[in-house]
Amino acid sequence: MAQLELQLYNYNEWANKQIFNRLKELPKDIYRQEIQSVFSSISNVLAHVYLSDLGWIEVFSGKSMNYALELASQQRETESKGIDEMEEMFFNLSEKYKLFLSQKGNLDKPIEIKNPLGGLMKTNVSELVTHIVNHGTYHRGNITAMLRQMGYVSVGTDYGLYLFLRQRENK
InterPro entries recorded for this chain (predicted)? Predict the structure, then answer.
């Protein structure tokens, strides 16, 4: 089972890289262009995803959900980062995740999350990796839709494409 979670996380990293590469091919103003959509700009989406991912690794490392949610207050500051700096932040965080996830026993590590709205969720890191990957996929879809609204095409980031390309590389 641990192999799947690591593969999913590697897919998530690959898909983010695809998005960053595509964004860097487009005119620079696209990154911050205001748009009537679920998010106000692509930089806004990426800041949200980054802070969410940062929050989860903090929870995995023993911080509270309240602490993780407080990271959302850094949205404006994070959103102000340029695309190259944001990409570097994403991939530094990915390295932190891969190190954590590859350590023996961490995927099975039990996690208790006290929901600020009440209640307790008992889960483990393995189940939450699926959530993190799904969350990233959802928001890469937002970026794809936003690019189309602005008159640009996105790039393939489907898990099936990732598997196909990975298999082709390993031949």
Answer: DinB (IPR007837), DinB/YfiT-like (IPR034660)
CA gap 121, 131 in Å, rounded: 14
Indicate if the alpha-carbon torsion angle 16, 18, 21, 23 is positive or negative. negative
Checking if the pLDDT of 170 tops 90, the result is: no
Q: Return the ∠ at Cα 40 (arms to 60 and 154), rounded to 5°.
A: 80
Is 131 assigned a ligand-binding role in the annotation? no
pLDDT tens-digit series, residues 12-63: 999 999 999 999 999 999 999 999 999 999 999 999 999 999 999 999 999 9
Question: Structure pTM?
Answer: 0.94
**Which DSSP string do the residues of 127-168 spell out, in sequence order?**
HHHHHHHHHHHHHHHHHHHHHHHTT-------HHHHHHHHHH
Question: How many Å apart are CA 61 and CA 140, to the nearest integer?
Answer: 26
For the stretch 62-116, pLDDT in tens is 999 999 999 999 999 999 999 999 999 999 999 999 999 999 999 999 999 988 7
CA distances from 115 to 19, 20, 112, 132, 167 (A): 32, 33, 9, 17, 40
Residues 125, 108 contacting (CB under 8 angstroms): yes
